[in-house]
User: Which sequence fits this backbone?
């Protein structure tokens, strides 16, 4: 009898021990459910607000474009390629009218595309001229909300050396159905390039199909953000652009370092033209560092 | 015996948490380490780990997690020793307070992921489950004043 009584008492104590604090677990469970409910409600509210507060595109002032075009050779050389994202060698070729094509696939809502456009405009302004670009910000309800940038949608690019093909799949405007407003559709050729190169083994399986997708001359490819959009947060496009000519500040350094690598890739596919850009020692060195084998 | 058994469970849970938090901390500081995580419209570790919410007081949340699990491990190891009941109760109170702090942090992190970032990080969710499991174990280990370890 005694052992059985002791066993029964032990069980009762065990139950009373945990049982006296079971309410804590109940409170935590309720708090967890309430937290998720509050979070979902907040997300829905922000998404609805974003859908009704979007405004029309604002043309980029000439002074801001002049900041891109006014980056001195000394600044390009000083910045170099530190912390820049290297491309992946895919070894294909893509041209139009005898010129290599720089292909960009992205979207207005995408904060990583927002970051990439800064380096693209800086680099490609060394080979030609952008016009009709508009101000844009990435989605206000995604990560790195409202990252300041520009939109290639409706913009133009002219160059003696390269052809620019841009596809902005959607805008940053969230519609009532929860989808971003569709803008452009890739051609079948572009679609095939994305399917082929924005996939393993060229990118990690979890990054397959990611944007931005940038392909230079069909040979060098970037998939994903060249740098963290965080560095652009809480600034206007004009503020950031003003730091470019001198390459001052962390944003300018990352934008220009990545632009130098992109410049090197373009030089590598367009016959090293123009000479003053492609013969720069930093660019020569960056060309040497470009990958030569597919993964 | 029961105290030791639950102590062992706490040690195992905290060690798993330490390993995950160490991995996420290394990811933050060493860019070349691959992030093993799906990237989609709901689960996207990269988006969460690179979001503004991933840094608190200048340090990555993963590092705060590493510190939290380190303290939790020390408390678990101390609670598992052969100690007198009064000391065991003090250790229990310390462990309970620590897991409550962890639980409140988990609630804040869940809110950030679902409400602010709009993405879920699978590794972070694993850590949240571990913290909540530690709270459950801590509650299970509770012994009211004057009652012996039920063995």
Assistant:
């Amino acid at each position: 009898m005694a052992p059985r009584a002791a066993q029964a008492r032990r069980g009762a104590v065990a139950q009373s021990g945990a049982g006296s604090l079971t309410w804590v677990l109940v409170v935590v469970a309720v708090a967890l459910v309430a937290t998720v409910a509050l979070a979902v409600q907040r997300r829905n509210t922000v998404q609805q607000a974003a859908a009704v507060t979007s405004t029309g595109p604002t043309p980029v002032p000439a002074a801001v474009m002049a900041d891109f075009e006014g980056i001195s050779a000394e600044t390009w050389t000083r910045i170099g390629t530190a912390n820049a994202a290297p491309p992946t060698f895919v070894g294909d070729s893509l041209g139009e009218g005898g010129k290599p094509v720089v292909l960009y696939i992205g979207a207005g809502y995408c904060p990583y595309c927002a970051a990439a456009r800064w380096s693209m405009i800086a680099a490609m302004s060394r080979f030609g001229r952008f016009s009709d670009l508009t101000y844009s910000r990435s989605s206000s309800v995604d990560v790195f909300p409202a990252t300041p940038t520009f939109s290639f949608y409706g913009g133009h690019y002219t160059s003696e050396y390269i052809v620019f093909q841009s596809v902005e799949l959607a805008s940053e405007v969230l519609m009532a159905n929860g989808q971003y407003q569709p803008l452009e559709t890739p051609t079948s050729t572009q679609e095939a390039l994305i399917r082929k190169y924005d996939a393993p083994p060229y990118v990690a399986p979890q990054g397959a199909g990611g944007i931005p997708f940038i392909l230079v001359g069909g040979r060098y490819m970037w998939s994903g953000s060249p740098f963290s959009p965080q560095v652009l947060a809480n600034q206007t496009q004009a503020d950031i652009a003003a730091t470019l000519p001198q390459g001052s500040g962390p944003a300018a350094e990352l934008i220009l370092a990545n632009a130098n690598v992109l410049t090197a890739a373009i030089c590598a596919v367009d016959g090293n033209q123009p000479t003053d850009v492609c013969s720069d020692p930093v660019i020569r060195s960056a060309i040497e560092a470009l990958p030569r084998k597919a993964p | 015996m029961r105290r030791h058994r639950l102590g062992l469970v706490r040690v195992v849970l905290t060690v798993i948490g330490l390993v995950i938090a160490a991995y996420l901390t290394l990811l933050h500081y060493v860019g070349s380490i691959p992030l093993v995580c799906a990237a989609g419209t709901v689960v996207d570790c990269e988006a969460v780990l690179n979001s503004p919410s991933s840094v608190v007081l200048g340090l990555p949340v993963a590092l705060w997690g590493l510190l939290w699990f380190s303290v939790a491990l020390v408390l678990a190891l101390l609670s598992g020793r052969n100690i007198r009941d009064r000391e065991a109760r003090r250790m229990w109170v310390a462990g309970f307070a620590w897991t409550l702090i962890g639980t409140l942090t988990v609630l804040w992190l869940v809110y950030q992921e679902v409400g602010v970032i709009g993405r879920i990080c699978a590794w972070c969710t694993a850590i949240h489950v571990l913290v909540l499991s530690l709270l459950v174990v801590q509650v299970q280990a509770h012994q009211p004043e004057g009652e012996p370890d039920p063995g």
In short: Chain B has one domain: 2-140. Residues 36 and 45 of chain B are 9 Å apart (CA to CA). The longest strand of chain B covers residues 55-56. The mean pLDDT of chain B is 84.
